[in-house]
Amino acid sequence: MILAVGFFDGVHLGHRAILSGAEAVLTFRTHPLETLAPERAPRLIMSSEDRVAALRASGVEDVIPLDFTPDFAALSAADFVRDCLLPRGVTAVRCGANWNFGAKGAGTPDTLKAFGIAATLVPYAVYKGAPVSSTRIRAAISAGAIEDANAMLGAAWFVRGDMFAGKGLGRKLGFPTLNFRIPSFYVQPPRGVYAVRCGGAQAIANWGIAPTLGSAGWSQSVLEVHFTEGLPSAFGDERIEILRFIRPEKTFPSLDALKRQIAADVVQVRKGTQGR
Question: Cβ of 244: how many Cβ atoms within 10 Å?
Answer without folding.
Answer: 18
